[in-house]
Amino acid sequence: MITTPIFDFVQDYKLKNATRMHMPGHKGMCVLGCEDIDITEIDGADSLYNASGIIKSSEQNASDLFGCHTFYSTEGSSQCIKAMLYLATINNKSNNKPLIFAARNVHTSFLSVAALLDLDVQWLYEQNQSSYLKCVITAEKLESALQNAKEMPCAVYLTNPDYLGNMCDIYSISKVCKKYGVLLLVDNAHGAYLKFLPKSLHPMDLGADMCSDSAHKTLPVLTGGAYLHINKNVEADLVNKAKTALSLFGSTSPSYLILQSLDLANKYLYTDFKNDLISLIKSIDNLKSSLLNAGYTLLGDEPLKITINANKYGYTGAELAKFLNKNNVFCEFYDASFLVLMLTPQTSEKDLLLLEKALLSIPQRQEIACAPPVFNKPQRVLSIRNAVFEKSEILPLKECLGKTLASVNLPCPPAVPILVSGEKIDQNAIEIFKYYGINTLSVI
Length: 444
What we know:
Radius of gyration: 23 Å
Helix content: 25-40%
CATH class of the largest domain: Alpha Beta
Shape: globular
Largest sheet: 7 strands, mixed
Order of helices and strands: HHEHEHEHEHEEHEHHHHEEHEEHHEHE
Strand order of the largest sheet: 1-7-6-5-4-2-3
Number of strands: 13
Mean pLDDT: 94
CATH architecture of the largest domain: 3-Layer(aba) Sandwich
CATH topology of the largest domain: Aspartate Aminotransferase, domain 2
Number of domains: 3
CATH superfamily of the largest domain: Type I PLP-dependent aspartate aminotransferase-like (Major domain)
């Protein structure tokens, strides 16, 4: 039976009506309504990065659920991504700078840690890279890259699922990584629930060595709740240093509200989540069929995501989002081409019916022929680190041609870079930035 040690401790403390001579400053006095269960590392509350009590017990529950070593983050997958890349660098067997082979559609947190750790990155591109958001790497593509590598990377890094709901064959890719003796790291921010499908598609069950899950994206967890997973087959030294890695990039004041939600999620995942998930997926599949019959074009193969190619239906993603907003439906993401909707077992049948009714009421129009500019491989001028720490200025897009991109400041969602720090801004990049409404850049 799964216990809830963090939640139980906080509830007991709340009932004591104690005089709080400790942080936080609100002293449990409610304005928002949650202050009485918002605590800090008082006696008995354990410490996230030196866990030996209730947090350690709760993390063990999560480890049992996911079948690997699982550690909590209250600062999202961003913290976990940085931690697992740090762990990969200290596992580097080369005397050179740590080298990472990474699929191009990384989250911006990857660039942050690449600058901080001075990583050398070799980008992996899809066969026909049509969008900066999509980069499905095959096992064959990876094997070719490793066969032709002048130097073996210390890790291969993939984003799976990506923001549009596309998924790689992690199982086959993991076999290639093991063949060449390199770690496989997966940004699984959008896929924590994949573990609980009738047949697990979670990276840890498909051979990944480490991965990050944003629990808050697809599980009933407060924003910021995430997991760092490490395979049981990974060297013990890396497992032992997981907390150190997380502490390097995290606050010493973790949110106990988020920790309680991670703790409570364990109980739900152990009991009702699988059945709720199966039921939801059936409903989503029915909704997808209705949309396809109505003329919509859908992308991706992730079960809990509906990605619509708005242009094929005669609209921009922004236009579809605006129409949905008028019906009190708010999407995850939209741009000139796509609309992304994320659903979870907490999405009710009433919500699904409202969404279906709203989408089916939109009349189909003639397809918009204007597609995003084809993504070309940019030229690297400087390392990511050198570009980020160089003196820079912000210029209008029209004045950036031929210059080198400095730091990357992206909106989230999707927080995926079009160009990477240190790359030359060519005309192709200018056209892509223009297409997505980006009017200024930070350049060296």
